[in-house]
Amino acid sequence: MTTYRNMIRSLGNEPPILADGRKAPDRREISLRWLSGTFLTGITSSILMGVALFAALDGRQQLAIPAEAFAALGTLTQTNKTGETAKRGERVLEPTVVAKPADKKIMEISTMIHDGEKEVVRRQPFAHVKMALAANHATSEDYPRFDPLAIFSTNGKDAAPASRMGTIYGSDVESEVALQTDAFPTGGSPLDYADQMSIEEVEENVRTNGSVLTDGSSQVASLYYVDPQRFASDSSDLDLMGLTARIVEENMSVSTFDTLTPDDTEYADDVIPVRRAADIDAVMTAAGYTKAQADDLSAYLEDQLGSKKLAEGDVMRICISQKGKEANIVRASVYSRGRHVVTAALDDSGRFVHGAEPPELDAVATAFDDDGRPTIIAGRDLPRVYDGIYRAALSYGMGQDMTSEVIRILASNVDFQAQLRPTDSLEAFFSVTDETGTATEDSEILFLDAKFGDTETRVYRFQNPEDDSVDYYDEDGKSIRQFLLRNPVPNGTFRSGFGMRRHPILGFSRMHTGVDWAAPRGTPIIAAGNGVVEKAGWDSGGYGNQTLIRHANGYVSSYNHQSAIAKGIKPGVKVRQGQVIGFVGTTGLSTGPHLHYELIVNGNKVDALKIRLPGGKSLEGKALAQFEVERQRIDDLLGRGDATQVAETH
Q: What's the pLDDT score for residue 464?
């Protein structure tokens, strides 16, 4: 009885306080049975809702992944099953990024390959894959660790071997077909030439035969000239229907390369960007010039400019003549917002006078450019680009050899050490041997489309009919291969750049006419581009073991302080880009093992890191026309362009 009274006292036995005229609640509404029932109902509802939610998710432990990971599943615009863009309320997140079976397709295509004098057309299977690199690709194969030297070095072999697959044929064939073409007979005809028809006779023939010509037909009335260059011919003469013309080169001489000696005068342009407003002499002394040189030039430019200060964004271009230990300023120019302002030149008496604007230099326009490396974007547990490509390619059956070829093709445009972005993707079209779609040692890549961030690299494989060379070209027929590499020591570390500096051994300021790449002694050095060795031996001017390679269009690359020159590298030998030509050392005037790399253009030394280098080889004329046909056929097969049917009437 006492317990019951205490319970009533705890719940209250007085009538409730009324407020705002509300009705007093019944005492049963605040009873223990009401409280316990409400509590049990809440627990039961929570359990039922949890069971229903678990069943709806099929037992999955993860409700959603970050939105950026889902982006790797498709293109920038996600669509639902009906083809419409996703709307609010629909499920737009998947539990994981997976590779879909539809991303790989095997198709049979007719290809044509040259077999002696015949052209053989046969059907061959090809694999077309679209890879989301951020997906969790599973592969049991091991792949090599990232090694820049292995990527860029070709070890003397051509980066693109001769084509084994041939080219895409324009029509389908059911079985193997062999075609043979012969040279058009241009030697002569057993038939006698008739006299030329008069105008009246031509008109009579047209009137007589016009009635038998049906609509849509065509007829060649006469053809008295045949261009012999359109047909195969072993003769170097031009036979114009009996009139022979021979092209003879006259007044042409080839001079030998003249190796520079320590007594020769060298010239170099030093480009100095002004990143914040400063006095002219302060800009020059900060760049390594002596106070006397800075004061002398600053006094003249101040008189011409009306001020001794340079504004932020201005560029100074100083031409240096160097002979032995002596370095002198022979010309200086100031540019503002990319436009030439004033030039000072040294006269015969050693005084600065007004000079004409020097020839345009690309390094002036790109003085404030960054080094061009892509910014590393942090992701959520995503691997490096290098690992992502290998894991995806191996899981799709491309194999190590083909994947390493993909790496070499993309090396000029892709930073493999950057972190993958969720939207990064790779599309490939390559030949296979059977329906499994697995690449073999005979498989070849015909097409690549790599998307990394906002950058897209699309290349097509093409065999140039002019020299039978095989390379990869962009959509405009320009080779993807760089003309020259900026770093001949891929494993090296940047040590010192181009410009005036105090020499660590000689103890005085002089122009540093190259770029230093530090690396352990014996590290391989590769050729920056295709060319011919002009010099390979000891240099008495302080360069130690030196190799000079002459490239096309007046470019010469110089490799200095080598510990040893590679076997077979001697004057007159042709080398390929990526071929090992020597090894890092510290011979000559050097304080430690490094490569002093110089680039010489038309006799002037330039900054190898800033100069705008020409691109790879571009196709022209007949080769470009054939490439465009080949590219269009590949685009049509992959559904990348509007297929166009061409009807021919014979």
A: 82
